[in-house]
Amino acid sequence: VLAVVVSLLLPVWYYSSARVLLPTGGLAGGLSGLLGGSSIASSLLGGGGGDYTRYLAILTSRSVLQNTVDTFDLVSVYGFEDAEHPAAAALEELRDQISFEVDLEFFYLEVGAFDQEPNRAAEIANYMVSELNRVNAVLATEDAANYRRYVEERYLQARTEMDTARVAMQRFQEERGVLELPMQAEGFLQTLASQRASALEAEIRYEALLNQLGPDNPQVQAAREGVRAAERAR
User: Fold this and answer.
1) What is the rounded CA–CA span in Å between residue 58 and residue 132?
2) Residue 144: what pLDDT?
3) Which of 56, 110, 175, 198 is an S-S bond match for 101, by CB 3.0 to 4.6 Å?
4) How many CA atoms lie within 13 A of 86 on its CB side?
5) pLDDT at residue 115, rounded to an integer
6) Measuring CA to CA, which residue among 169, 160, 164 is closest to residue 188?
7) Which secondary structure element, helix H or strand E, spans residue 163, and what is its range?
8) Can you tell me whether residue 115 is helix, strand or coil?
């Protein structure tokens, strides 16, 4: 009887959720379409299941959470007006009242929110989804612009290096009296071009992740190690 009485006296909390389908091609697929199906663009951020990590990074970012606190005046809602740091306290409380669940079978991300007002719970969940869409669209535009600029710079650099190699080979042929490029040299150049392409792909992936997630993100650190490995292979 006591347990029933206590349960009736406890405040009622409501849960609301919104589901977001994860694109099968992901952002990388979008970039690939913009840039003519480039294989480098397709591997830039990974495809398929890798998209949910990007979405989670956006949803748990301080900017999105702070916008949610400000939009719904959660400092007052959670009763932190007299706290030493009201905004920070409300931010931590919001983190405790939201949840994210990834379903890889049906490939969706569920954004959930708890609140003592059912309408506000629904509004918070929907607002966070709208913020996800907004930030993701901005990042997609920046990714495309950065990718184009980076590829153009690397293309010009590669052409300069190729011209230098061609001049050096021509000088070698003239000095040694070689009229045809030996098969060994051709194989060497093909290997060199393959290594250069791998290094370029690693650098593009690292730059994109660094701009989006910051230097301390595990994905960024792994991409940086990939760049170093590619540079050593060259």
Assistant:
1) 6
2) 72
3) 110
4) 12
5) 95
6) 169
7) helix 118-176
8) strand
Question: Tokens 């990834």, residue?
Answer: 102
Predicted pLDDT at 222? 80
Nearest CA to 123 out of 13, 18, 12, 11 is that of 18
> What's the pLDDT at 77?
94
Order of strands, sheet of 14-21, starting from the edge strand that comes earlier in the sequence: 14-21, 108-115, 98-103
For residues 95 and 65, is the Cβ–Cβ distance under 8 A? yes
Q: Are 100 and 120 in contact (CB under 8 A)?
A: no
DSSP helix/strand/coil, 85:
coil
Q: Which residue has the tokens 């393959």?
A: 194
10-residue mean pLDDT profile of the chain (234 residues): values are 68 90 57 41 41 86 94 95 94 95 90 95 95 88 72 73 70 62 57 69 76 75 77 64
Rounded to whole angstroms, the Cα distance separating 74 from 91 reads: 8
- Return the pLDDT at 27: 43
With residue 181 as reference, give the H or E element that holds it: none
Angle (nearest 5°) at CA 30 between 123 and 196: 135
Is 90 exposed, middle or buried (CB count within 10 Å of its CB: 0-12, 13-18, 19+)? buried
pLDDT value for 65: 95
E-strand spans in the chain? 14-21, 98-103, 108-115
